[in-house]
Design goal:
2 copies of one chain form a homodimer. With 362 residues, the first copy, chain A, is of the alpha/beta class. Chain A has 13 helices and 11 strands. Chain A is globular and about 75 Å long.
Chain lengths: 362, 362
């Protein structure tokens, strides 16, 4: 790929442009808002000049509802050899392109799984896609050359290609992204009118469950509006399970011992299914989370404490795979949990004890 | 406090014993399982010898359903001047003590907010309660001397006392601990039978939402069985909100523009209420989470990378308040997010750039 056209210089479009420019591709930028093009150009994401002839690949990076008309217009003007979009939902844009008699051969739907809390070209970065899945949704009509151009784009961006059917993609993101977002918001919403004393008792569990409840409502309303059916189907299934859980809890409150027994079974079932589902969530580098063991260490709150512990771990030759800080409430001390390969636990613990660190027994 | 009796040498009982022994208190240990007492004694948590006379404070650390009979027995034998329990639910044990004609004057209900994934004396540690809230639920009958003994225990354990009504406590933990646990399990349960391709798309959002879904089903069934009413009430409210969300999503799928408008409003409302609730969750040291800004840095996966970045931050005099590693899937590189005071962002960014780190623009 030697030339590309990015239509829509928001977070995703500008990030892709930055990655391509960094790998020597000549990138032309288009946006209905000239101010955004100026910003992207100033960041080094490409040129606002028109290309001399058709570019190799046009990347349409606009909200889902605008994808099809912009694609059809670009195709009619013959701006590129191949066309992809990067919208977070794939079924709707594909169908809309068909409705508008767009060309199916030169088009390929795609979705890089690299959302952020921020939007716009100023949030863009060349490494946004590094190591992330980038979904491609080819059909029987898709030209092989366009598929290869998209694979080259993904390689240049450092992402990992995943091929899926468009509707399967929409059901998948409904499951792994849109449903967790809404349920995080629903749990957090319960805190809105809670007593201050209750809120003080919040621990790391609710903190993790509600982290993404801080996301931008306008952006998420747009995403959910483009994928309402699959999300509603999964939420309805969760609602069914939730009703069962409420029934099981009411049974636990009953005077009838047999009913209470049924309640216990019902609640245990929810928790065990949660165990099974959680075990499938890939950890770092796609490995199972169970592959790591935790070493917990008491740390102070002075600058340098974290540096010192990581230096001590590094000096012992141990690779920290993940890290989590457990927050203390109202006090200046906390725990840090270091996740390491099981084989490295003994080495790390001995090294840290040697250097005077206080370990929490696991 | 010079002497204490710990009844029940599990995680909480043994941890409290270790903390008290470390502060010079003579601790006697009792458990129906002599093996557990031997383990706790071997860990240095106290003596298995019987006390010569009444101790200052007896700490009953047994599951909620066993608290009242064990308390009444201890009171009748006059084992202590004051009695507290540390069960995670407070209404039921208090009522059961009344039903068994236990003494209300020398008893005080309490709950240290220091759960862990592991159980038993081997998981115990003297610093388990450090900086954590420890709820006390005195009644009008509670003796002031017993309240002061409990406050001394909490101070010796390094915890932070919070006084609440017993039923208010049970509603609070239903909200901030029991409800998030069940909803995390319900989201994770949806992954149990998901396609492998869908699971590959999991990102940091669902990873955080489902972390506590890995918790022990047997332990959580016991906890939820002791607090079914308050949890069911909150889950029923969540179920109501969830039904509204499903209705809003179905409306977004409608051909009728006015219905779609209603759907947008409904979904935005859920997300905005989630924002408001999340903003109330205390961050580190009880501060609002918004007080920190994030600096994101690209890191490799070699040992020493984390040490190097923390050392560079420390050398710049910047205190890292929290840290999060964004996982790359199938690749050996990732991002680390350093959370710092807003005033330290510029200093940290300049220092890291100076040392050759590649920063992601925020």
């Amino acid at each position: 790929m030697r030339t590309a056209l990015v239509v829509g210089t928001g977070l995703i479009g500008t990030s892709a442009a930055l990655a391509l420019v960094g790998r020597g591709v000549r990138v032309h930028l288009l946006d209905q808002d000239p101010e955004r093009v100026r910003t992207a150009t100033a960041l080094g994401a490409g040129t606002a000049d028109k290309p001399d002839g058709p570019v190799d690949l046009a990347i349409v990076a606009v909200p889902p509802a605008h994808v099809a008309p912009i694609l059809v217009d670009a195709q009619r003007r013959g701006l590129a050899r191949g066309y992809i979009d990067v919208a977070s939902v794939k079924g709707g844009p594909g169908r809309a392109l068909r409705d508008l008699d767009g060309d199916q051969v030169s088009y390929l739907g795609s979705h890089p799984m690299s959302g952020r809390e921020q939007n716009g070209p100023l949030a863009a970065t060349a490494d946004l896609f590094q190591g992330r899945p980038w979904v491609l949704t080819p059909t029987v009509e898709t030209d092989t050359e366009v598929l290869n151009l998209a694979l080259e784009l993904i390689a240049l961006c450092g992402a990992v290609p995943v091929v899926m059917d468009a509707d399967a993609h929409d059901r998948a993101v409904a499951l792994v992204s849109h449903t967790p977002q809404l349920l995080s918001s629903l749990v957090a919403a319960r805190l809105e009118s809670a007593d201050e004393t209750a809120v003080r008792l919040c621990g790391q569990g609710i903190r993790d469950v509600t982290r993404i409840a801080a996301s931008d409502p306008a952006m998420w309303t747009e995403i959910l509006s483009a994928n309402p059916g699959p999300v509603a189907d999964i939420l309805a299934a969760v609602a069914g399970d939730l009703d069962e859980a409420v029934r099981a809890l009411r049974a636990l409150d009953s005077a009838d011992e047999q009913k209470r027994g049924g309640g216990v079974t019902g609640i245990e079932d929810v928790l065990r299914r949660g165990n099974a589902g959680r075990a499938r969530v890939p950890g770092k580098h796609g490995q199972a989370p169970a592959a790591y063991r935790t070493v917990a260490v008491l740390i102070g709150d002075q600058p340098g404490e974290l540096a010192r512990i990581f230096a001590d771990a590094g000096a012992a030759g141990v690779n920290i795979e993940d890290v989590r800080i457990e927050h203390a409430t109202g006090q200046q001390a906390g725990h840090i949990q270091l996740m390491v390969d099981p084989g490295a636990v003994a080495v790390l613990e001995a090294a840290l004890r040697d250097r005077g660190w206080s370990l929490r027994q696991q």
